[in-house]
Amino acid sequence: MLKPRENPINRSRQRALKNKQAKAKYNEIIVLATMSAGKSTLINALLGTELMPSSNTACTAKVFRIDDIDTQKNFLTLCSKRKRWVLANPNKLMDENDSGQAPVVRIKGNIAGVKNYRAKLSLFDTPGPNNSQSHSHREITKQLLNDGNYGAVIYVMSATQFGVNDDAALLAEFKQVEDSNKQKKDIIFVLNKVDQLDEEKGETIEKAIKTAKDYLTAMNFHSPTVIPVSALTALQARKALNNEKLFRRDKANLRFQLECLGKTTQDSSSNEFSEESMNAVLISSGIEELEARLDNLVRNKKQNA
Fold first, then answer.
1. How far is CA 249 from CA 165, 236, 255, 266, 300, in A?
2. What's the pLDDT tens digit per position in 201-250?
């Protein structure tokens, strides 16, 4: 384990925390997951826009730090070459990800579902540690966990494939780090992709939650908090609410979700995805339950210096 003074991620964090513009302290929350769990999609759902790189391959090679600033209208990223904040978009973030400059890609913007009170939420998106193409991904994630400066962890699991070897290995490693911490951290387990469960085959959300809790308890996580979420559906609903372009698959899934909720749609109408119907989809997606938990952590948890 690297000493704190030798850890480039820790140094980058400390510089950010000392920034005179950041008057409030940060409550740092690390987002952990193996590949294909939907971690980037979950973060995008929280951001309300398709910003973070997301695909079936391991996109994230660095740590992405997202500082929640309620007054910020657009998401900005710190350009490592030009040393100034520029408008963030997926291509720009991939350029920063691929560059050999800073070890942490900095982003700031308003995470609308979480309000900052005496502290600001700061999300850390970690590289997928089971990427066979780069062993450095696991080391980067280990460094972030070992420095112990974070206040909580969101661990993302896929409802369709949790319990695989990579997942068990990451959980065991995380548990070892957690047990060595003097100050226990809050852990939120997100059971993602619950909308892909096939109820006709008996795959209900209730059964999936019970299975996840039994699995986590067997891994020595006692009384785990498990929140079922449909991150992709939540992201699509927020894109509709923000009047962002919806692709054919987005529209098809939103129509299906509305049908499941017993709400009819008006095809080819500008009112097809109304604010009322999209808010109903958001509630059923579970994303607002996760945001309420994050909001509570920022409001009540003793904040990091």
1. 31, 10, 10, 17, 39
2. 999 999 999 999 999 999 999 999 999 999 999 999 999 999 999 999 99
Q: Does residue 130 surpass a pLDDT of 70?
A: no
Closest among 304, 237, 289, 302 to 113, alpha carbons compared: 289
- Residue with the two structure tokens 């009384």: 223
pLDDT of residue 15: 58
Q: How far apart are CA 166 and CA 131, in angstroms?
A: 10
Quick count: other Cβ atoms within 10 Å of Cβ 220? Answer: 11
Rounded CA-CA distance 176/95 in Å is 34
Whole-prediction pTM: 0.85
pLDDT in tens, 261-287: 998 765 555 678 999 999 999 999 999
Decide if 122 contacts 68 (C-beta within 8 A).
Answer: yes
Q: Which amino acid is at 217?
A: T
Spell out the SS3 assignment of the chain. CCCHHHCHHHHHHHHHHCCCCCCCEEEEEEEECCCCCCHHHHHHHHHCCCCCCCCCCCCCCCEEEEEECCCCCCCEEEECCCCEEEECCHHHHHHHHHCCCCCEEEEEECCCCCCCCCEEEEEEECCCCCCCCCCHHHHHHHHHHHCCCCCEEEEEEECCCCCCHHHHHHHHHHHHHHHHCCCCCEEEEEEECHHHCCHHHCCCHHHHHHHHHHHHHHCCCCCCEEEEECHHHHHHHHHHHCCCCCCHHHHHHHHHHHHHCCCCCCCCCCCCCCHHHHHHHHHHHCHHHHHHHHHHHHHHCCCCC
Residue 166 CB neighbours (<10 A): 17
